Amino acid sequence: MSRILIAGCGYVGEAAANLFHERGWQVEGWTASAASADELSKRPYQVRAVDIADREAVLANSQQFDVVLQCASSRGGDAEEYRRVYLEGARNLIAAFPTATLVFASSTSVYAQKDGSVVDERSAAEPTHTKGRILREAEELVLSNRGIVLRLGGIYGPGRSFFLSKFLAGTAVIEPNDRFINQVHRDDIVSALLFLAERRVECAGEIYNVVDDHPITPREAYAWLSSEVKKRAEPFPSVTWERGLAGGNPTAPRKRGESNKRVSNQKLRAMGWQPQFPSFPVAMTKSVLPSFGI
């Protein structure tokens, strides 16, 4: 029986732990806080409170694992928190589990292209922002130790959608220069994690983009939501399409950066992986809207 450590049992990590357990893996999960570990105490696998940025705590819990999945979140923290969670966390996990394959959940934000071009794993990944540079440093550390890097698009799924939340809150903004957003459903991330963990020997030292098949612009996303939510919701939410466009502050700086690119998942697809939710409309219809009661 293969053993995996899920270092970070949050939105993605908990779903990953559940799937690996269902597929017969021996699973252990770590969370940064005792409260979170307590919330997960009734899962059919052990969950410990271990902060991966705490080297002594990580080394004190060193065991034998075949795979270590690093998917702890910075929870929107600043650059120092990024360095602590992603870079120091990777260093500590490598030190504690030198024989395990480390699978590192990174981000497509490391691609800084602004021209709407298609990018793949061979494309330049030279982020201009500090957080992106920290992610790249962590990626290189993982790759140099024969780990696997997954560059994830914007995560959405049950109970979570940037576009839908903005639309319903009336804070959606269509900017003059529409750009591509690369997303991926949580369950497709989890299936990719399992897919690569099972092929860890052949995939060691490699990078894989994990995104859906169809990058989408905010204009396209909000137009689709305007049409579909109106058909599904009774009564229709108080936020209208026009209000959704006008709300918010169009001059505010983007939290997601200034890049504009279409990220390709063809490397992973060529190996046999397929997303269950290949596009925004499919994911919203089958998963996200029902989870919001729409």
Short description:
This protein has helices spanning 11-22, 34-39, 55-60, 79-96, 130-144, 162-169, 186-197, 200-203, 218-232, 241-246, 266-270, 280-291; strands spanning 3-7, 26-31, 46-49, 67-70, 101-107, 118-119, 148-152, 154-156, 183-185, 207-210, 262-263. The protein has 294 residues and is an alpha/beta fold.
Estimate the global geometry from the Cα principal axes.
globular
Structural class: alpha/beta
Distance between the termini: 41 Å
What is the oligomeric state here?
single chain
Radius of gyration: 19 Å
* Number of helices in the DSSP assignment: 12
Mean pLDDT: 91
Strand content: 15-25%
Question: Unreliable stretches, pLDDT < 50, 5 or more residues?
Answer: 238-256
- In the sheet with the most strands, the strands line up as 3-2-1-4-5-7-10
Estimated helix fraction: 40-55%
DSSP strand count = 11
Largest sheet: 7 strands, parallel
The run of helices and strands is EHEHEHEHEEHEEHEHHEHHEHH
What does this structure look like?
This protein is α/β, with parallel strands linked by helices. The protein contains twelve helices and eleven strands. The chain has helices spanning 11-22, 34-39, 55-60, 79-96, 130-144, 162-169, 186-197, 200-203, 218-232, 241-246, 266-270, 280-291; strands at residues 3-7, 26-31, 46-49, 67-70, 101-107, 118-119, 148-152, 154-156, 183-185, 207-210, 262-263. The longest helix has 18 residues, at 79-96. Residues 238-256 have low confidence and may be disordered.
